[in-house]
Amino acid sequence: MRVRRRRSTWPAAVVTPPPGLHYTGLEKPASWQTCNGCRVIQEASQKLSGEAIILMYHHCARLPPDAAIRGLYVTPRQFAWQMDWLTRRNVRFCTFNDLQGPGNDLPDAATEVPARPRVVVTFDDGLRDVYENAFPVLAERHIPAVVFPVVGDIGKSGVVWNENKDKSPQSLMSEAQIREMAAAGTEFGSHLWEHRNASRLAPAELREQLARSRDELARITGREITSIAYPYGDYSADVVAETARAGYRYAVTTKQGSNRGAPLLELRRYAIKGVSLLHPLRFIRTMRRVLAAASSTA
Ligand SMILES: [Zn+2]
Question: Same domain for 92 and 230?
């Protein structure tokens, strides 16, 4: 049987919509309109202006003898020393909500040339020892920080996360402790409802974890929640799109490096340790290099 091929009359130009626009139907190509999906994709690809050095911490406590992952600890003494070292370098401590604020991302010709390097101090998991040991250090120095609690586990003790290599039980800060920190200027962001690998969740489950954790944290803190740390640093293009759709504007990973021009939903961090005598030397070496790079291109 002979098959007659019909030549497509569909104009080639219609196949690719202009940036931010979406073809809404079979009407004439003149009906390009903005659509929510495209807006979300645009937001997901927004980049950071300027540089921001983001530090990643977990526990702030003396190293317990049975600690499975030593790198997740900083002692209160070393943490205070690290904050003082950075303060002496005249860095500007920020949270995500004031990263993109007016005048905060570019050098101020009148007063600051070059701009002071911006540093964001973050803590994953919302562990209780951060309230007990890091919060007093931060409060005394008026340093803002960002905490990402596993929202479904707030206030619980003896929590073990199935997908976590570290099977030692964790204790999380309570609602009252979160409220106290938020009132003192700590920003709170999501770490999902459960400590799960985001890329392995079914789309509906991921949407639920993103929305439920955001709403519960907003209820506890009385503030809009705009940031998230992907548990285990695990994410994918689909996770980024869902994160944008859920209204988050900043997301941090566990990748290390510069954030100059980085997508706001894939920000990089420096994992900071502080339990051995070598760690202050490593901290100085890393931070000197990072601060020099930040100011040379400011
Ligand atoms: Zn975590």
Answer: yes
